[in-house]
Amino acid sequence: MTVPPAPAAVGAALDPAGPPPPGRRGVARRLWADRNGRIGMVVTGVIVLGGLAGLFGLLPYDTVAQDVAVRLKPPSMSHPFGTDQFGRDVFSRALSGIFASLRVAVVSVAAAAAAGTLVGVVSGYAGGWADAVVGRLTDVLFAFPAILLALTVISALGRGWPETTLAIAIVYLPIFIRTARGPTLTVRNAEYVKAGRVLGFGPLRLVGRHVLPNVAAPILVQTTLAMSWAVLTESTLSFLGLGTQPPQSSLGLMVADGRTFLTTEPWMLVAPAAVIVVLVIGLNLLGDGLRAALDPAEDRS
Amino acid sequence: MTALRAVGGRVAGLAGTLIGVAVVVFALLRLLPGDAIDANLGTQAGLLTAGQRAALRRYYGIDQSVPHQFVTWIGQVLHGNLGVSVNSGTDVATLLGSAIPVTVELAVLATLIGAPLGIALGVLAAGRPGGARDLGVQSAGLLGLALPEFVLASVVVAVLGAVFRYFPSAGTFVSLSQSVGGNLSQMIYPALVLAVGLAATVMRTTRSAYLDVARSDFVRTARGKGLFPRRIRWRHVLRNSSVPIVTMVGIQFGYLLGGTVVIEQVFALPGLGRLLLNAILQRDYAVVQSAVLLIATGFVVVNLAVDLIYRALDPRTAET
């Protein structure tokens, strides 16, 4: 924050700061105090650590190289989740699959959240025809069921994980625009913003100091929930053969491979499926916990 | 009168949205590298002389301006001419016509199973919030939301094969008009899988809507009057929480129209989702374009219907 010039400094003293944004420490503590938030943090944290191991190559086995000598081995000390039909270690492949899923989910949701917040706040604050145009565009994107929009984008761009990332980002863009636009509209006409405008504060300061803190909480909750949906969608698209391409590992691809062996070698399907379920539950609980931690109204309930 | 005008406004908005959808679908296919000539002739397109290429461009209408092409395409679509599938050589309208009933039936069956189940579980959970039953139902709901459809569907198919010696993808599809029993025996398992996710979502909505109403004064009055708890539960509380529940069921039904891709693929059902997926995999763009346009139209129309039902259920919303 730069030091404001003299007239604004007078105003700053009078500046009726809106609801004070909860301090970062405060949110973390409240999240930990919430049972859902605590479980969500721990579960998500453990899975993310597994994904990081995949990213840095800290895996017990190569995820792509085949070793026919140990194909379709049940879980054991050397292969905790067993091996697949090519003798690849399912545990190592699951960890690198977590990375593949999180890579798509994090990049797509971050891009959608950043772009959606920018567009939603600017159009909501500006109003007028710009807002009307943005409103119509989001209506059009909402006219596609989510998975259909993702499939349509992939049909135009082609298969692969970068394409999947862009597809999921486009699906989530209108949701973030709406999430950011709603609170912006409310705050824009609030007394304290009007007062700031009367005091001569520029739009950048009003948006930065008063609008964004109000938008941050719903966007943060939406981001967590969007992550869980993005993980599900990434694995669904990979399952259908449209996302991550073999021989790279992906949780969705592993489930697709494991189908044929489900009755004889169930670990091939159960391991990646369990990872997806646990990760999605963790992200959902984290989202619920964040909602409770960030909502002052839910303080006493 | 005002209500009529409000409905008219929504229908006009729907038309605008559909034009936008058509533009998006059209624009996405413009993004593709190459044109219709490359798509149909492949590498042989390079052997064409400039004159042949110009003649072909005129034949496909791609020598016209892009807005002109768009208007021509929309005009054809509105006349029911959706083009021909490159892969099967069949009329796209015929392909869609045979796929629609499968997907709609699947969505209807899943809703008929999932919605009552979700509502019942939601009421059960909301009866004593924080209690053992609430915790159990909520945990099951979270699991239902987190369990991917493709995992559940794969497991169901494998179990059907191993235990009951029933292989959905092996036999030919029996339509509802051919044999009701034969059709239902094929559709029931995919419908059940779809119903799990739907029931979990509806359960969550029911639970929170029920708890909102249960806190209100008139419910306390009813309890004070000594009405039977069961009567309060169904007549007073559930009835007044019906608006968000009906809305959620409607939205979920709309999603199913475009969200049966995975289920149709795993259970080998010849519905819209499978048609679309195969068209995407085989780059059959005439089919992709029409299928996406059709599904989005269905989704928007269902959402409009939900909106109108919402107004009818809660007269207060019609006034605004």
From TrEMBL, chain A:
Signal peptide: none annotated. PROSITE patterns: ABC_TM1 (PS50928). Coiled coil: none annotated. Residues 1-25 are annotated as: Disordered. The keyword Membrane applies. Residues 98-287 form the ABC transmembrane type-1 domain. Its main location: membrane. Keywords: Cell membrane, Membrane, Transmembrane, Transmembrane helix, Transport. It is a multi-pass membrane protein. Belongs to the binding-protein-dependent transport system permease family. This is ABC transporter permease. It comes from Actinoallomurus oryzae.
UniProtKB/TrEMBL annotation, chain B:
Keywords: Cell membrane, Membrane, Transmembrane, Transmembrane helix, Transport. It is a multi-pass membrane protein. The chain crosses the membrane at residues 12-32, 106-127, 139-167, 187-206, 243-267, 287-310. It holds the Pfam family BPD_transp_1. InterPro entries: MetI-like, MetI-like_sf. Belongs to the binding-protein-dependent transport system permease family. This is ABC transporter permease. It comes from Actinoallomurus oryzae.
